[in-house]
Amino acid sequence: MARWRKGLPDLSTGYHVEYRNPWLRTVVRLVLVLLVLGAGWQLYHLGYAQGGDDYGSARTELRDLRERVALLGHENRQLRQDNALLQRELTVEREVSNRVRLDIQGLERRVHELTEEVDFYRNIVSPDELERGLHIHKVQLTPADVPGAYRYQLVLTQVQGNRSLEGRVNLQLEGRRNGESIQLEHGDLVPGEADGRSFSFRYFQVVSGRLHLPGDVVPEALVVSVEPEGSHARSVQQREAWSSLFNEGDS
Fold first, then answer.
1. 212 and 192 in contact (C-beta within 8 Å)?
2. 0.85 cut: is pTM over it?
3. pLDDT tens per residue, range 195-237
4. Confidence bin at 5 (pLDDT 50/70/90)
5. For 180, phi and psi rounded to 5 degrees?
6. Residue 8: its pLDDT value, please?
7. Facing residues of 243 across strands?
8. Which whole-number Å values give the CA distances from 202 to 118, 160, 195, 237, 248, in the listed order?
9. Which residues pair with 18 in a beta bridge?
10. Strands 204-212 and 149-159
């Protein structure tokens, strides 16, 4: 269909002729719309595909991380169990080591005691190296269960003598009180025994008792005096430093 529209002048009439199809414009617009929609769909699909790939990768990485965390947690629990087991084994080994050490110390003390007993009985049976008469063989202190209280023990022997000996043992403490030298007699140390502790034996006797030390006295030495009755035996005296009267660890 031809449609006339005023425009540039024609050579003959002053008008020009323009041919127009109204459906063509509609088709063109529809095609353009479809192209835009298609392009949008392609862009959406492309973005979705890429996003899906990223999401899948993220899920895979998250799953791997969770598996790694679970593995590390298992390894951590196993290490804790191993550490606890090692600690128990170490504790047992320490306890066994301490028991063995204490047993060895006890055996060493027992060997020392037996050696002293052997020497003691050897001196009684074969006293060739000792002077004839009364001897103080051993003096020992042991802390009691009350502060300032001690159990004392000493061994008296008679070398190359057939008579029974009787007499008294007196203890005397040398020390300091408020920086000044003092001496405490047997009656001060052992209440009720102002005259000392009695003894009576033929070959040997263990004399023991309990003494009490005043709290304000710093002991330095213990003097043991043995005075037999009669004129056929001589008196003996022995001075021992306070620290030497205890077994190791008792003082």
1. no
2. no
3. 999 999 888 899 999 999 998 999 999 999 999 987 677 899 9
4. very low
5. -110, 145
6. 45
7. none
8. 19, 10, 22, 19, 32
9. 3
10. antiparallel
Q: Can you tell me the distance from the alpha carbon of 61 to that of 208, in angstroms, rounded to the nearest whole number?
A: 86
User: Which of 95 and 20 is assigned the larger pLDDT?
Assistant: 95
DSSP per position, the chain: -EEEE--SPPTTTS-EEEE--HHHHHHHHHHHHHHHHHHHHHHHHHHHHHHHHHHHHHHHHHHHHHHHHHHHHHHHHHHHHHHHHHHHHHHHHHHHHHHHHHHHHHHHHHHHHHHHHHHHHHHHH--TTS-SEEEEEEEEEEE-SSTTEEEEEEEEEEES--S-EEEEEEEEEEEEETTEEEEE-HHHHSTT-TT-EEEEESSEEEEEEEEE--TTEEEEEEEEEEEESSSSS--EEEEEEGGGGS-TTT-
Hunting for tokens 């003959």 — which residue is that? 12
Output the six-digit token pair for 172. 């005397």
- Considering only CA atoms, which of 132, 156, 148, 134 is closest in space to residue 210? 148
Query: What is the average pLDDT value for the chain, to the nearest integer?
Result: 81
**Residue that wins the pLDDT comparison between 30 and 120:** 30
In degrees and rounded to multiples of 5, residue 207 shows phi and psi of -105, 125
